[in-house]
Structure formats: structure tokens, C-alpha cells
Amino acid sequence: MEERRTLKDLLTDAKDESEFMVDLAYAAVFFGDEAIAQEVLALEESMDEIVHELRTIAVLAGRSREDAEALAGVMRLAGAMEKIADAAQDIARVVLKDLGVPPGLRDDLRHAEEAVARIRLRDENALEGKTLEELELPTHTGMQVIAVRRGVRFLFDINGDTMIQAGDVLFVQGPEEGIDLVRELAGAPPRHLQEPATRSMTGIDRAVDLIVEMKNATEVAVGLAYSAILFRDKGLAAEVFAIEDKSDEMHHELERWVLRATGEVEDPDELRGLLHLAAASERIGDAAQDMMRLVEHEGEIHPIIAEALSEADEIVAQATVAEAAPAAGRTLRDLKMRTETGLDVLGISRGGRWIYRPRADFTLLAGDRILAVGPEHGAEALENLCGVVREEED
Question: Considering the entire predicted model, what is its pTM?
Fold first, then answer.
């Protein structure tokens, strides 16, 4: 008999699965891969079960008004996670329903940030029976294993001791050139991704750029939202609201460009996918904004929420690049930010404008404010790269 999951376990699973679904859904669009899209739909069914069980436990636990008020925050958070999962499912349906995705969108997604890929182990492979620590995939391929599907079960709690087994399906994240390296180790044929052709900007190109920017912005908003709740940080909550406002503006602008682009294509129906993706991205941003009601509320956050969100042991670190700092004038690739600090850069503020999910070739300048997420020890490493001077402790 399967062990019954606790409220904390359910919230943790819902957070992990909803965030993973968004990454996976965009990977399906990037590759035009129906198999990846089907994985998203399978996860959405799992999310429905989790949210149903969450609500059942909450109802059974609500024996008084005080109990109900204490669990209201849990239900709000669960509802926001469900919205994110539903939006991810809609993104995946762009592929399954063949709604039409301009080739330029796939090109832009390749360079928007690190790619996510699904790789199934073949019978002849070099990974089976080894732990991730032994394989050192980040060092040799640049790719990080973010989840493993074993049968019908997904494993999200990945660490160096995780051993790869026959039949595993790996979900990896990293630079696109690393995808074929991992596929080779898994015994899978290479994809041979082609470099995009150089062409002049069109209305479709502008719409595509806005889709990518919306994608990056809303994903950052979700990451900041979880951290804002965990640390009761109203400053981070304000950033989430600002991102959502910006996302709304981008959505309106995108609609205008899509209307202008109808004359650039033989069949305007090909542009439906862009509008579908934009609407899904906006719903993800709306869900992040919904979470911020928990921060605005003056009462204490329910301890179950704090425990669930702290499971990953991640923090949001921020630092401003100082003059003559080691990071000044260097790209994120040169700094090996993830390797050296363990942090993923969510966004960079420069001159009052945010650059969300900056690319590896982004060059840092003095005055840039960096927001990143990762293990607690990474905060000090980030400050060192940015030249932050800490006061001497007594």
C-alpha cells in the first residue's frame, strides 16, 4: 500500500512539478516534440491528484474558524501552483494541436536561456549503473540532470548519489551544445541542431522576441514569488508585481505585432500559436502575483508552507557589481556563474530596466544589480564576484 503523503510533502511535490512542467512545456515547443508534450500532460494529471488531496486534507483539518484561516494560505498557494500547471499544459498543446509556431521562435528559445531536453537511455549506453557524482555530467557536458522518470514515477530529489538505471528517461538542462553530448552517452542518436539563418527583422520577429521575454519574465516572477513567501520579503513581492505589470504591457504589444504580421504569412492561422503562448505566459505571471497575497497579509505564514518551500534549501541572493569588481566587464559564461557560485541568475537590473534570464554571453557592468537563486553558500561567492565589501564583525 502506498504511504500517504503529508500536507508538506504534497506542497513540495506541487511546487517541484509545476515548475518542471513549465520548463518541459517550452522544451516541447523548442524541439517540436510531441513526446515531451505528452510528458507535460501526464504531469498535469499528477498535479490534479495532488491538489485534490491537498483540498481534502484541508477540509478534514478545518474543525474551527481558526483552522480554516490558518489553512487558507495553503489553499491559495496550491491554487496558484495549479494555475501554473494548467498554463504549462496549454503551452504543450501548442505542439500537440499543431497551432503553428514560427521557426524564428524555436531559434530564439534556443538562445533565450539554457535548454531543457528529454533523453531516454538506450540498451547500449555509458550511464547505467553509475551515480551522477561519478558521471560528472556538468563538467563533461555542461548539462545538469533536473529530473528522472523511472517507469511512471518522476524523481525530482536529484543529487550526487542518484544512480542511473536501465530504462530511465533523463531530463537535463544546460547549453544546447551539451544536449548531443549527453545523448551520445545515453546511446541515443544526435539531433544535429542547425544554426539559425540570419535574416532581417519582421513583425513576426518582434512578436517572437516579446514571447521569449514574457517567458523569461514570468518564470523569474514565479521563482521570486516562492522566495518572497518563504522569507516574508515585501521587497521581492514588489519585484513580482512589477514584473507582472511589465508582462501585461508586453502581452498587449505582442497582440499588435501579431496583427501587423498577418500580411507576412500565407496563412494567418499560423500565428495562433504565438497568441496561445502569450496567454499561457501571462497566466503564469498572474499565478505568481496571486501568491503575493500571502506576503501582503500581516499574519504569520503557515509553518507547513515554510517547510515545503524550504525543502530545496534555496535562497534568493542579490548583489550589485562594484567598480573594478571581478565580475565587471566579463560575461556570465566567463565567470562560470553556476559552477563557481551554484546560483542561477534570474535577472539583472540595469538603468531601471530588468533583463530576465540573461544569456551566457551577457556582459556585466559596474552598477548592475544581480538577482540569483541557489544554495545559501552561493550568496557569499556572488558578493565576492561583485566586489561587495562586508563590514568587519566584532
Answer: 0.71
